[in-house]
Amino acid sequence: MAENGDEKLIAVARHIAKTLGRTETMTDDILQIFSTFDGRFSREKLSSDNNTRVEEGDPRNGYGVLDLTLKTLDRQISQYVSSDQPIWSNLNDSSEFLDAIDELLNTIRDWEPISIENKPIASFLDRADDLLQQAMFRLEDEFRLLIEKSSESFDLNRLNRSDSVGDHHNSFSSDSEDEDGFNNEDRIPVAHPVSDYDIVIDALPSGVIADLHEIAKRMVLAGFEKECAHVYSSCRRDFLEESISRLGLQRLSIEEVQKMPWSELEDEIERWMKGAQVALKILFPSERRICDRIFFGLSAAADLSFMEVCRGSTIQLLNFADAVAIGSRSPERLFKVLDVYETLRDLMPEFEAVFNDQYCVVLRNEAATIWKRLGEAIRGIFMELENLIRRDPAKAAVPGGGLHPITRYVMNYLRAACGSRSTLEQVFEDNGSDYRNIDGTNDRPLSSTSSLSVQITWIMELLESNLEAKSKMYKDAALSSVFLMNNGRYIVQKVKDSELASLLGEDWIRKHLGKVRQCHVNYQRSSWSKVLAVLKLDSSSLTPSAAPRLLREKLKMFTQYFDEICRSQSAWVVADEQLRMELRISVAGNLSPAYRNFLGRFQTVPELARNSDKYIRYSVEDIEARVNELFKGTGVSAGGRK
């Protein structure tokens, strides 16, 4: 009996030494201390191999020690597991509960190697695993309770600058009890829009974060990493999603975005741009910071938790951008699509920095994919602009040869688009040499790169071809020239006064100014050549007897032609004031000297000179006055001398 008692005593001492000794050296020291009190505790006996197989029922096997340990831990842990009060409401209780869990984990770790070949030990460890699972379930509840309770009581107005300087009052706020005592305990504190992104949110007090870290550490050690990440993310996800909702962002499906009226979608894009900035620069980094502190030293758990917290909100933001990218290619949508593209592009460094782990790589890649898809949408919109120009019908000529609506639309569109020149350059350079049109044709100029200048040049060529076709609707060649002159001058002016000048280049501008001048020459030739021809005098035919009749006929013919031209061209339109003056000066410069010379010869014939008022309807000054009434688009021209 005494021998059996000694064996049990030695087994207990051996277990105590192994439990208290966190390292092999510490265990040896404890064994040495035991041996100084009693010879039975000699180091050789106490440190004998625990893995030696013994028969079941042998009093030397130490099962009783393990059984005693588990019963003790069961009593300690069960009292907390079954408690109706939060364990972390009392510092001593939480400390003792964690100590008991630590001892249980150490016991399982110490005895697990033996259990592989020892069924009785394995059965004891099954009991230990059941107890550990109960403890983990309670830790999970405590973890959740700490987060929820702290979130309810934390004031989100308490923001910290990253440089710890300054104060951001009212940038963020929480919904707390009002003066009437309304209870907001079910509400989640949320973020409000801000303009300063140099801030972080400490949404949980440091003490709570320390407690959560201790709980997370035990749950991960116990193999409950996913459960810990899940309970953390389920709590923090609500905060994050409600915060984003407070920024004005609706949770919309891709189909809902695509069905939204354009005016509403424009407003939604504005809200999305602001919300995405706050999410990527404030909310997500703050969540990353909290995760890293709670799961310090547990990087896999931190990454998994952060991904689960942010995944839903991130997908919500990206889905909206994706819906914009795959939506209508209508040209008027370009500028808002550019806004979304630029916002996502500028946030890519934040995506790279915040979502930099293995769990978040899919979110990071999705952001990059949608950003590229937005670039494709922008290129598609330009292709649709090309098709719009091609398909613009020549239904009716513009009255008076004025500016065609397609010219005004395209030039103002391109000027506005070039306000985002650097972005468009990036978009078209990314496109490489793919010039395939929406309708499947490939008739645009080939180039090794898809630069913006090539794209703009091609659109200008399409516009010019369209205008050339429309000019052929005018039966009057002079009016056709005025139409091309008006539109050509407008195009050149819009190019010179914008970024288009540097994109198209000086050679392009000189070439098209030359085209406008040629239209001017064509107008002069078509309108005034026959008038000037009438005023020409052949001395050989002006014999004294034939001169009176011939000069009267020429003057009558000139007056007729001049009246017809003035009557029709007073209704023509030249909108550009400088061009209008240039045309008038050019006409008068050719017509006035010829008419003055004709009148001088007319006055040399005595028969005609005596009755000049009867024959001469217009003086030179009258001619110039009527020329100055041309191109006003009024349809009225002042009369000359009667």
General description of the model:
By secondary structure, this protein is mainly α. Helices cover 68% and strands 1% of the residues. Helix 8 packs parallel to helix 11 (299-325). The N and C termini lie far apart (153 Å).
Structural class: mainly alpha
Rg, Cα atoms, Å: 46 Å
- Poorly predicted runs of 5 or more residues: 46-61, 152-193, 433-442, 444-450, 635-642
- H/E element sequence: HHHHHHEEHHHHHHHHHHHHHHHHHH
Number of helices: 24
Helix content: 55-70%
- Look at the structure and give the mean pLDDT: 80
Largest sheet: 2 strands, antiparallel
Main sheet: which strands, in order across? 1-2
Strand tally, please? Answer: 2
Portion in beta strands:
under 5%
* Oligomeric state of this protein: single chain
How far the N terminus sits from the C terminus, by CA atoms, comes to 153 Å
Give the CA-based shape.
Answer: rod-shaped
